[in-house]
Amino acid sequence: MVVKQTPTMEDYLERLLMLQAENKPATVTEISRMMCVKMPTVVYAMKKLSEQNLVEYNKRSPIKLTRKGKRWGANVFRRHEALRHFLVEILNVDPDIAAEDACKMEHFLSPVSLERLSKFLDFVLKCPRGKPEWLEGLAYYFEKGERSEELLARCQRGG
Amino acid sequence: MVVKQTPTMEDYLERLLMLQAENKPATVTEISRMMCVKMPTVVYAMKKLSEQNLVEYNKRSPIKLTRKGKRWGANVFRRHEALRHFLVEILNVDPDIAAEDACKMEHFLSPVSLERLSKFLDFVLKCPRGKPEWLEGLAYYFEKGERSEELLARCQRGG
DNA sequence: CTCCTTTATTAGAGACATCTAATTAGAGAG
DNA sequence: CTCTCTAATTAGATGTCTCTAATAAAGGAG
Q1: How far in angstroms lies nucleotide C17's C1' from the CA of residue B25?
Q2: Which of A41, A56, B7, B119 could form an S-S bond across to A37 if both were Cys, CB 3.0 to 4.6 Å?
Q3: Residues B136-150: pLDDT tens digits?
Q4: pLDDT at residue number A158
Q5: Which is it for the CA torsion A97, A98, A103, A107, positive or negative?
Q6: A82 versus A59: which is more confidently predicted?
Q7: Binding-face residues of B in 17-56 toward A, CB within 8 A
Q8: CA–C1' gap, A129 and D10, in angstroms
Q9: Is residue A35 within 8 Å of residue A12, measured between CB atoms?
Q10: A1-126: which CATH topology?
């Protein structure tokens, strides 16, 4: 019965899912390259994960996520994407930095917060009437350091 | 020359700052209680931090942050607060959960993202014309699972 | 088949952060 | 001063994740 994974293990699960999604074989070498760790580290991790039935690991053959591992990886990925999108789309953070931050923070976003963050993004970015004006105002504020009088006026006209 | 702290050490610095702010003496026992670790763990941490001149630690006397340690702690706190506020004020996450999530994620928020997040919160919560309407719409969306037609219409009147 | 190269694994060590158990220091009661 | 209690420290162990160095397996070139 698995109830928790360390951030490290979650990273491996997420990476395995990515590889699978791209139809790349998940080899020790490949994972090691992508995660910037040495091969023995990967072997250690795969053994750990297979003890928990999150991956199917047989020496010298490509690694496969189990159904359980896939679910877990997908979950990590959702958290990653929610955070990354928020940073990029709302906060206008540089995509590389956003990805890095998301990659670290993803392990600590609780289910409730994830759900809210996702809904927030939907609310803002999938508004049936197009992107809300305040997003523009926010971008202006980021850039100039002050609020756009014009947008401020327009945005509040209806309030 | 200190360039980085582990999340753990950042937590101690933050906690020390809190104690100081409340004028409570920072003893091993107190820190141990507050951080839910045993006393030897605290001693270990204080030794580590004092090696880096982040705290003044002399056996059997109250622990003090150095100027450097204070700065670092304050920085952690800023990240904590930005995240917590976002979760509470924007995403309406339960305050306890928000605090927990913030406490974990705070260690991984880059300076750029912090700056943007803080500005975002200012922009939204310190709007000179009061809280923007879309926040209400968002709360509605969280609660009902769908957009409020009324607010949608009003919010867009000016766009 | 033998040699070489690449890939993977094992063995062993180290950093970090935690614990338990044992010890020491200090403070207050008598 | 001695006894006792609490606070603090030391010693030693553990789990996680990483590394390097050494070894093993597998696949191709000849």
Answers
A1: 24
A2: A41
A3: 999 999 999 999 887
A4: 41
A5: positive
A6: A82
A7: none
A8: 67
A9: yes
A10: Arc Repressor Mutant, subunit A (1.10.10)
